User: Fold this.
Amino acid sequence: MDNIKSKNILVTRSSLPPFNEFVEKIKPLWDTAKLTNMGELHKELESELKRYLQVDNITLFVNGHLTLELLIQAMNLTGEVITTPYTFASTTHAIIRNGLDPIFCDINKDNYTIDTNKIEQLITNRTSAILPVHVYGQVCDVNTIQEIAKRNNLKVIYDAAHAFGVKKDGVPIGNFGDASMFSFHATKVFNTIEGGAAVYHDENLNTILYQLKNFGIMSQVDVEEVGINAKMNEFQAAMGLCNLKYLDREIKRRKYLVEIYREKLKRINGIRIIPEQEGVESNYAYFPIIIESNEYGLDRDQLSKKLESYHIYPRKYFFPLISEFNCYKDKFNSNLTPIAKNISRKVLTLPLYTKLKEEEVEFICDIIGKRK
Ligand SMILES: *Cc1c(COP(=O)(O)O)cnc(C)c1O
Assistant:
């Protein structure tokens, strides 16, 4: 039996299928020697994911970031893109690396997604799209965003890196907006080691996305686009196919652990738990808490240090804001998104993964409950 008190508990731990199942899945590759370039496993995963996510169109990529970069390129966005600074570096980098200007909108204080009351005041004649983030798997206000986009003739691309498998009012998350990006990075709810997928309504994007991830090559003699290499290989696809079989069970396990967290933390003064969204079937990807230091007695950094002294390593996820990164801080002003700034200074994301034990969750909650 592991001794909880001496074992490191990290914020996450990658899901792995039984070793033998992975070996069985990759065995045929030793006969075909076809390791990449959209092989059999790639095709199989693409159709399995299309079914699991219940979307019209899907294209797989080597990672989530390049998925987003190439989606932006394929959809010919121009000028300015409205997004939030309360996300992972990738979201803003993808806009900038396409030569576009990110315009930061604040988040709402209830679920940390884009504040739809503040979007329209940021629209100019250069705005081409809105790029909101379903942060922690919390669903953005998709209906209002759709209305704003329609009224102003804008495209909508969701960063759904955290939202694999989430549904809102029974509608699978990948159906909102014009397109969404998923990440299958090792730390995400569903992983292909590294990987990603674009899902979208316009079937004309199939060809262009396929070209862009393969250097823009159409045939041996035709190169049509300034593409890049962003193909998912067969080993990644094999990992995805094996992991997908266990996903529903894993999400159930996450839900169970989150319920323990909620139950044990709800009575602690100064600890705010993200509310459950009505009508949303969650994937329980992350468990962030907000520490109100005046009520709780310790601030976020002090609580984080305290947990670390017990070998528990939560993450300040998302801190700092993207607009505060060294590479961006001269260009943007984080005071213009005060709620995002405030939340980023109070948030702590607690350990959550399927192999985490109930006793470990209880232990973490007990330490938080002690305050001192
Ligand atoms: C993980 C993540 C990405 C990037 O995905 P990768 O697969 O790691 O390239 C983009 N946006 C958000 C919000 C993420 O969490």
